[in-house]
Design a protein that fits this description.
Layout: E1 2-4, H1 14-22, E2 31-33, E3 49-56, E4 65-68, H2 88-97, E5 104-111, H3 123-140
Parallel strand pairs: 1-2, 1-3, 3-5
Antiparallel strand pairs: 4-5
Helix pairs in contact: 1-3
């Protein structure tokens, strides 16, 4: 499981908050990344299921959760915020073209409200992080797909 974000930029820290909530969960190997591009360092042939959590730009409502279980659903033009060289959809697409994307990939995008330097998570995003962590726990226990 890859949790992406920047703890010092408001709701961009959503991925790391989910990682905190999953800490110690049986069956969860959680890596914390600052940028989507770092994900490429962890994709090996022995991963059957990849779960990615990242913040995305608000376009429907702060705290909205988008669960994408198909590379086709992960739009290259979606509202993913990135201060980095490549966005998450671009990295997933690159991993797919390099044939290193695991057979099953689920991406959770949590719409953020604020991304200012030094601000914490908004209340809506905190609630969304709790919901995503709960869903991932169920997934790991084999209760959700």
């Amino acid at each position: 499981m890859a949790c992406i974000g920047n703890l010092h930029r408001g709701d961009d820290g959503a991925g790391h908050r989910v990682a905190d909530l999953l800490s110690g969960e049986a069956g969860a190997k959680v890596i914390r990344l600052q940028t989507p591009a770092e994900l490429l360092n962890y994709l090996t042939g022995d991963i059957d299921l990849l779960v990615v959590v990242d913040a995305m730009e608000k376009f429907s409502g702060a705290g909205a959760i988008h669960r994408l279980d198909s590379i086709d659903k992960l739009s290259r033009t979606a509202a993913w915020r990135s201060t980095h060289t490549m966005t998450l959809p671009e990295i997933i697409g690159l991993a797919e073209s390099l044939n290193i994307l695991p057979p099953k990939t689920i991406v959770y995008g949590i719409e953020g409200e604020r991304f200012e330097q030094g601000s914490g998570l908004s209340e809506r995003v905190e609630k969304a992080c709790i919901s995503v962590a709960s869903e991932i726990k169920n997934l790991l226990r084999g209760c959700g797909e």
